[in-house]
Design goal:
330 residues, alpha/beta, 34% helix, TIM Barrel, 16% strand, 10-stranded mixed β-sheet
Amino acid sequence: MTRKKQTKDYDSPYLNLIARQGYHIIGHHSGIKPCKWFHESLRGGIQCYKNKFYGIKSHQCMQSTPVLQFCTNACIFCWRMMPEKKNDDLPQPGFKWDPPEFIAEKLIEEQLKFVQGYKGYDKTPKDRLEEALHPKLATLSLTGEPTIYPYLSELITEFKKRGMYVFLVTNGTLPERLRKLKELPTQLYISMDAPDNETFQKVCRSHLTDGWERYNQSLEFLNTVKGKTRTVLRMTLIRGHNDNNLKGYAEQIKVAQPDYVEVKSFVYVGGARNPDRGLKLSDMLRIEEIRKIADELRKMTSYIITDEHVPSRVVLLCRDKNAIDNRFIE
């Protein structure tokens, strides 16, 4: 079974590159690419951590983004192949933004094209194939910083109108965009990738001079929407780069008070393998090390170790029993 890749020529060398890598590009700036767990699930295999932690079925999840080519950070662990110039990593004045209804409709259309490829594949369970034809989750996390998209509230609304959940993953550098959200996602993630400013500058490499200060404002915002949406801090840990100063991480957890904390190793894939980033396969933490870090954070925050997904090298911390009892969406 083969999956057809887009061959259309784009004005942007970056878009041409990621199209060859299997991303399906929507309009001027959006895109979708199912992850390995989507394909694994439709082959009758195991599902991802979102299924184990929150009950989301991997074959019903759309891994997508409204900002393929734009981000406020250039994190060394990101799988994204980044533009050569910082100015190319942010939209320029006059950039044409596609409407949210168009993005939602086209992302779903492209998702169903991926699903159609499994019709007739004898290892695909019939019940999973039928379910996959009805996507339930739009995960806005594929690449880029989704809060750059100016009509994010309307896009979230479009997905919800179609009976879908929305997981929004942000690096937290645009707190003013988060504060302006009229429609909150089902689950709001902030990436917690540095315990202090010095590490933030080295690992997250923000294009914004006040990126660290902005990130901390977003942590405070997360606390204000507690109870209005599900909230998560997601760690991406790299050996020898940002896996120290756990006290700094604990303080951030205390400020944000999220429902959940995902303690996770970085993965040596895609752009993270660029030699200029300085990372190695051995910089991935073993699950035993992730468990140890999660236990240290448990001691410092009173959060509760609740679950783990060994293939993804991730451990779930929950704020309290209420968070544990209500973690499954489906």
